[in-house]
What does this fold into?
Amino acid sequence: MPEPATGARSGARPGARTHRLRVVEVIAETADAHSLVLQAPSESADRFAYRPGQFLTLKLPGADGGPVARCYSLASSPDTGEPLKITVKRVAGGYGSNWVCDHLAAGDELEVLPPAGTFTPASLDGDLLLVAGGSGITPVLSIAKSVLAGGRGRVVLLYANRDESSVVFRDELRTLAEDHPHRLLVVHWLESLQGLPTVDRLAAALAPYTGREAFVCGPEPLMDAVEQALRSLGAPGDRIHRERFFSLGADVFDTPAVPLGAAAGDGGTAEVELDGVTHTVAWPSATPLLDVLLAAGVDAPFSCREGACSACTCRVVAGEVKMLRNDVLDDQDITEGYVLACQALPLTDRVEITYS
Ligand SMILES: Cc1cc2nc3c(=O)[nH]c(=O)nc-3n(C[C@H](O)[C@H](O)[C@H](O)COP(=O)(O)OP(=O)(O)OC[C@H]3O[C@@H](n4cnc5c(N)ncnc54)[C@H](O)[C@@H]3O)c2cc1C
Ligand code: FES
It folds into this structure.
């Protein structure tokens, strides 16, 4: 079951969407990975409360003058008192990652959407199996630090990299393991020494930990291999959580145009509970719920707006909807009533939705 999509939202200006965060420090983690330490202005600080594993969506200037949206997971933990930190690894030929690494310096400002995402443990007290590949370490490190600082769970982290020089956070991981010798085990997998992590070899390495809830983030082939390995060991699919890194396509920052038909009886009515406030909005039959909410000035969470990231997940309490596209929710989520607001269209005159 996905968790609610964002951190605390109280105090946000309705419809403000992006917030300007100051770059406090840029840290060269490896030759091709830079961390940005960020600070939210005091008036939006509560919008940047987050859960471990969540991500920020950056609004970067595009080559053609228009905005480019890119997501970066928070590598910091909300349970350690450390400031917000994202880590960006250069992608060969990629626009956004190279722009961030080449252009940003301490003192600059960035436009950012509040934290979002459902790649986060429901409890910090259970034992977890974490698997990361390359830059996929960011949300996984955040989860590990939160469990160690704010919970009672034990953590095993398998971290795959090409070679030793590409290991991000090597020192931080070593210190964490030294500080928590009975609760954190970090196992490095270097392809230069050990070869590719195949399904069989992963199954052998992960076998002692199959009873644990698993959080996996990295290149698609690694995540597929880990999932196959865990399933071959009998782990149920709903205990394996994956975070897929991809670049957002459309300009997600535009305020959507909602057809005037809304007021003329086309479609239905949505009653939407968000942060303890119920909003009633007309819902045209061909307009996604998220667009209706944003157009009405409701500060609903989102990131990709293309059914791929789960930031907009909410739950249908009454009535029926259909989704245009869904790359993230599984059958069980859908049975439990979860839908993606950015893809949801009404099938009944009245639909009740909750984000809690
Ligand atoms: C939830 C989430 C969290 C994420 N967290 C992180 C994180 O913590 N750290 C991190 O580094 N990344 C993270 N990402 C990935 C990040 O958002 C970007 O996708 C990544 O930085 C690459 O973006 P880019 O603009 O550099 O590359 P892009 O410009 O999007 O290009 C990606 C690839 O496509 C190729 N390409 C681009 N245009 C073309 C074209 N026209 N024809 C053919 N090939 C093309 C490029 O050569 C490159 O190989 C995350 C993504 C998501 C969704
Ligand atoms: S905003 Fe990404 S799935 Fe809806």
User: Anything to note?
Assistant: The longest strand covers residues 19-30. Residues 268 and 349 are 4 Å apart (CA to CA). The pocket of flavin-adenine dinucleotide (ligand 1) is lined by residues 55, 70-73, 87-89, 91-98, 117, 135, 138, 243, 245-247, 309 (CB under 6 Å). The chain is about 20% helix and 30% strand.
